[in-house]
């Protein structure tokens, strides 16, 4: 069946298929390229990572990770939903801040774009030039004319968070990149359509987040956040929402970046979390959409994928380190 015709059947088919919960290790092996998933070795500290399959969606790449920790599944799910990478300098995250409802401008007090560092100068320069950033035309014009670049970004980010908190996915304005509108929501849904089996598995959390097309049964309220980090040597701002649902004995978390200031369009990280003998098994899937991927093939695309896997493995080890710390 052509994937672009799947939208209307997602609410029924995805819910039905995902409700057939298999044994955790068998599920991971069936849906990933991990042929040997040894829970004992994972609990001892082994982390499995791999590149995802080649996508038909030209802007997309993916990666998968599997690890285990000696903690209850419910606790792992809760802590992954609001996990902050900021304490780990090697991850180059300057700020990770949870946002209340409603969002306030004070919640962006840590954003100060007056640094002499090259990545920050890049963001300020692009803002003033109205070029190379993920903004609507009105946003780009207003930011470029702001007397203070930091204040302009705080105002814009607050407005985007407020629109998302009030209107959900329908409240996300498209970017205007190279003269054409690019919707981060459509990019997210294209990633999920391309990885249909994975989207089926994660249907419970994707449905309750409202990200799948169709009616939403018992929607869940996410954890909202913003962060400031370095990507490709550029200062990057993003807005995210992390959803968590319990489905039978397992938990699912969907961490969605619904706004990114530049370099890529959007990303979603999916976690499936099961109780197993000795602790909890976690399967992680990362889906990533970026404009430059459309023009990469062969070794160049492989290089992006290898880099993505390396960064995710590094982040996962930091996660495991934090999960081992009792709260």
Short synopsis of the structure:
By secondary structure, the protein is of the alpha+beta class. Helix content is 37%, strand content 25%.
Outline the secondary-structure elements.
Layout: H1 10-18, H2 24-31, H3 39-43, E1 48-51, E2 60-69, H4 73-81, E3 93-99, H5 118-129, H6 137-144, H7 149-167, E4 175-177, E5 180-182, H8 184-194, H9 196-201, H10 203-209, E6 223-231, E7 234-247, E8 250-260, E9 266-276, E10 279-289, H11 298-323
Antiparallel strand pairs: 1-2, 2-10, 3-6, 4-5, 6-7, 7-8, 8-9, 9-10
Helix pairs in contact: 6-7
Report on the architecture of this protein.
This protein is α+β, with helices and mostly antiparallel strands and 327 residues long. It has one domain. Helices cover 37% and strands 25% of the residues. The chain is built from 11 helices and 10 strands. It has helices spanning 10-18, 24-31, 39-43, 73-81, 118-129, 137-144, 149-167, 184-194, 196-201, 203-209, 298-323; strands at residues 48-51, 60-69, 93-99, 175-177, 180-182, 223-231, 234-247, 250-260, 266-276, 279-289. It has an 8-stranded antiparallel β-sheet with strand order 1-2-10-9-8-7-6-3, with helices on both faces. A two-stranded antiparallel ribbon has the order 4-5. Helix 6 runs antiparallel to helix 7. Residues 1-22 have low confidence and may be disordered.
What is the domain tally? 1
Run of helices and strands? HHHEEHEHHHEEHHHEEEEEH
Tally of helical runs: 11
Residues in helices, as a percent range = 25-40%
Are there runs of 5+ residues with pLDDT below 50, and where?
1-22
Give the averaged pLDDT, no decimals. Answer: 90
Gyration radius from CA atoms, angstroms: 19 Å
Terminal CA distance reads 48 Å
How would you classify the helix and strand content by structural class? alpha+beta
The strands making up the biggest β-sheet line up spatially as 1-2-10-9-8-7-6-3
Biggest pleated sheet: 8 strands, antiparallel
The number of distinct β-strands equals 10
Shape: globular
Q: Strand-residue fraction?
A: 25-35%
């Amino acid at each position: 069946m052509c994937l672009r015709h799947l939208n209307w059947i997602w609410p029924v088919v995805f819910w039905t298929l995902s409700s057939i919960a298999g044994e955790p290790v068998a599920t991971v092996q069936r849906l990933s390229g991990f042929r040997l998933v040894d829970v004992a070795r994972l609990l001892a500290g082994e982390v499995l990572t791999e590149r995802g399959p080649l996508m038909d969606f030209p802007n997309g790449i993916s990666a998968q990770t599997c690890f285990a920790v000696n903690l209850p599944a419910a606790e792992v799910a809760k802590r992954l939903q609001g996990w902050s990478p900021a304490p780990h300098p090697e991850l180059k995250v300057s700020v990770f801040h949870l946002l209340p409802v409603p969002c306030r401008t004070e919640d962006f007090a840590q954003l100060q774009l007056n640094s002499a560092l090259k990545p920050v100068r890049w963001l300020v320069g692009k803002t003033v030039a109205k070029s190379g950033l993920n903004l609507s035309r009105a946003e780009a014009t207003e930011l470029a004319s702001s007397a203070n670049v930091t204040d302009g970004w705080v105002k814009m980010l607050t407005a985007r968070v407020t629109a998302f908190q009030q209107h959900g996915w329908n409240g996300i304005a498209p970017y205007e990149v190279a003269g054409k509108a690019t919707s981060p929501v459509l990019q997210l849904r294209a990633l999920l359509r391309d990885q249909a089996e994975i989207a089926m598995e994660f249907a419970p959390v994707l449905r309750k987040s409202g990200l799948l097309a169709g009616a939403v049964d018992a929607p869940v309220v996410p954890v909202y956040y913003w962060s400031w980090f370095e990507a490709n040597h550029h200062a990057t701002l993003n807005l995210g929402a992390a959803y968590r649902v319990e489905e039978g004995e397992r938990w699912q978390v969907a961490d969605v970046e619904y706004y990114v200031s530049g370099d890529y369009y959007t990303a979603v990280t999916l976690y499936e979390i099961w109780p197993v003998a000795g602790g909890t098994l976690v399967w992680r899937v990362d889906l990533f959409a970026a404009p430059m991927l459309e023009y990469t093939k062969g070794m160049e695309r492989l290089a992006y994928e290898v880099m993505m896997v390396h960064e995710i493995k590094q982040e996962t080890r930091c996660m495991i380190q934090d999960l081992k710390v009792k709260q």
